[in-house]
Amino acid sequence: MIWKTAWKNVWRNRVRSIVVISSVAVGILAGVFTVAMMAGMINQRVDAALNEEISHIQITAEDFRTNFDPSLIIKDADKIISEIQQVAGVQGVCSRIILSGMANTATKSTGVQIVGIDTENEKKVFDLYNKIIPGTGDYFETESKFNLALVGQDLAKDLNIIRYSIDTTVLRELKEGGVPEEVLTRLSVISGERFKSEKIFFKKLKSMFSKREEAKYGQIIKEKAWSYRKGSRLILTFLDKDNNQVGAVYRVAGLYDIKNSMFEKRTVFVKNDGLKQLAGISEDSFHNLIVKIDNIDNTNEITANLKRKLADYEVLSWKDIQPDLAMMTEMVHVYYGVFMIVILAALAFGIVNTMLMVVLERTKEIGMLTAIGMNKKKVFSMIMLESVFMSMIGGVIGMIISECVILLTSRGGINFSQYAEGFEAMGYSAHIYPQIEPLFFLEVVVLIIITGILSSIYPARKALKLDPADAIRTE
Amino acid sequence: MKVLELKDVNKIYNGSEVPVHAVNGVSLDFQEAEFAAIVGPSGSGKTTLLNLIGGLDKPSSGEILIDGTNLSKLKSSALIDFRMRNIGFVFQAYNLIPVLTAKENVEFIMSLQKWSREERDARTFELLKAVGLSDRMNSRPSKLSGGQQQRVAVARALASRPKFVLADEPTANLDSKSARTLLEIMEKLNHEEKITFIFSTHDARVVKMARRVITLEDGAVVSDDIRE
Fold it and tell me: What ranges make up the beta strands (E) of chain B?
């Protein structure tokens, strides 16, 4: 009867209850959706790091990571790779040469890490072959008499390999993309001009358009206007294994885009064979062996196993190579919990206020209930249940709406392309796919119930302090 | 059979400069199935005496014994439980729970005492039939007249077969017809259920119907008339 009475009391003042329930629902929606966005960003970052940058486990010679000394190599790599592939849970292994050097074009130069890869084995571990910008080349399939390089899009911009120009094709594509005729007319004034860099191009656009037009159409104009010439020349210089300065001319055979500006600016991929010859590294030797495993949860176990087998080498998991990522994934549940607690604490004040009004309005009734024999525990339970019911209804509605919103947005993602530069500078994609684990909803339910209970304590104590004889006489 | 004894009960309020003797040396006994009215001018201590008998207030001195149990000796939680099982209340302002139907209001106390569903339903139906509201069982108080609400309150007060029912000005907010109907029902239940009714009242109709009239003045009993 207490449950029934409490439930009915919630709807005694419908408007007030709906206001409280709505505030809880909106708070939960905001909290859960924000957590889903954070989770999506973090999961995307981890996936990108594992699939495109570092994979799960890396093996190098001792002290190689300290200063990337090219003479510190792994010899008899084939034998070691064979051993690694015997370990349960290993999905793929690839080998790399890593040299620090400079990338130079006619107009610019910058420090880079030159990574020699085996294109076939690379596909077993990394997703890089899927990240080549269409139309820029087919690095993984191309054979050539020239040395070929795969360059990051942002590095290509820095080295002025990417140019910007407006021509009839670009204008047509912009028109198909929904850019108004009036904008296209103004844009056609610079048709035929080639802009060496993004900075110069954007400066020109700024002078031609208003801020609002730039914000609205700038991104699509940039995407359509950029171009580069396949086979652009790039000179890579580095120190070989004997610390001699070496250089070679490469032709750009593709641009990759992994939405990580820092990585793209500093990493150039070339083929192992040619690089080894230039660096004086023998056939079966590499700087880095990279292991992909089938289940990330087994990282620690497999890493320990490989450490035992390969005691002469340094074996590091992704958690050791990028401890910030490890921290994010391990601490993330704590952050979510704290975030939700803060939101619910704020909501609790509203619930406390409402319940205090409820107790005040029902002073006479509570006095009567005590008079006819309702003990303190039951009075407390009734008020607590009202608070929990309101919190739960709001919470459930909030969770249902947030799940719907997450389902909708997780398909197409949320596009923050106008902030792409900022996102990619930190290694995050500007296209976020919110994600939430079902277990999180259970945690939220528990937090909501706790909030309802805690919010009811003070009002219930006020109710228990009422003298029934005085309460009954209340007007 | 004695259901209620008051032995030299006093209640003194020390709030202002001069202490107020609200109840002054009252000694009374009540038997089973009595139909008694406590009368007196405003401020004579009627409501205070009823609150003391009902355990809603503690006497400054003296004893109140219900079926041999001294109310003053009971701790707070035990007192509430004792009240629930032994005393029924009918208030001037009905004080029904507005969100519950007539049926749910009557069975509320029985559910607190963990009666089975069958027992609750049977007793509720019996009482609502006795007060003439078996066709309004599923109506909320807002859909009932004042007289009907007070009849539901009487049914509620009798639900757990208490030793006695305390009714504080039960007819004060009713029109004459409703008041008469209510009193007839209460008298009938008094006979049928053998439950003692103790009224605090200004209403002459109640006084006329009562078989015992206790007059209070300045907190003390000035007369105690038992009528045949």
Answer: 2-13, 20-31, 35-39, 61-66, 69-70, 87-90, 164-168, 196-200, 212-217, 220-226
